[in-house]
Automatic annotation (TrEMBL):
Organism this protein belongs to: Thermoanaerobacterium thermosaccharolyticum (strain ATCC 7956 / DSM 571 / NCIMB 9385 / NCA 3814 / NCTC 13789 / WDCM 00135 / 2032) (Clostridium thermosaccharolyticum)
Residues in Dinitrogenase iron-molybdenum cofactor biosynthesis domain copies: 11-104
SUPFAM superfamilies listed in its UniProt record: Nitrogenase accessory factor-like
The protein's name: Dinitrogenase iron-molybdenum cofactor biosynthesis protein
Lineage: Bacteria, Bacillati, Bacillota, Clostridia, Thermoanaerobacterales
Pfam families: Nitro_FeMo-Co
UniProt feature coiled coil, ranges: none
Amino acid sequence: MIHRIAIASRDGKMVNEHFGHARRFIIVDLYDDGNYFVREVRECINACGGDDFYDRMNIVIDKIKDCEAVFVCMIGNAATMRLKERGIKAYVNPGFIEDVLKDYLINSVGGD
């Protein structure tokens, strides 16, 4: 099975970006055997950029709507709930991308 994951990262190595500040998401396909493939980097506006927060957040969520999960280093409750409504799980799990993906397979996918 393939799990499509969005990762908020400033450097492409670590999960190190706040959901509302992210201007890009690394999109990976994660396989059950632990291997993953970086599909693309999706550029977007940041959700926390002005008075139109909810409109901006919807634009950001639309960019990752095909993902089952998003990894961030921080996220607010409003964004977490909005993602959940769209069927996307938010995980606050800063660290190396490879380690975070392994943890996801072990704790979330394998534990279902």
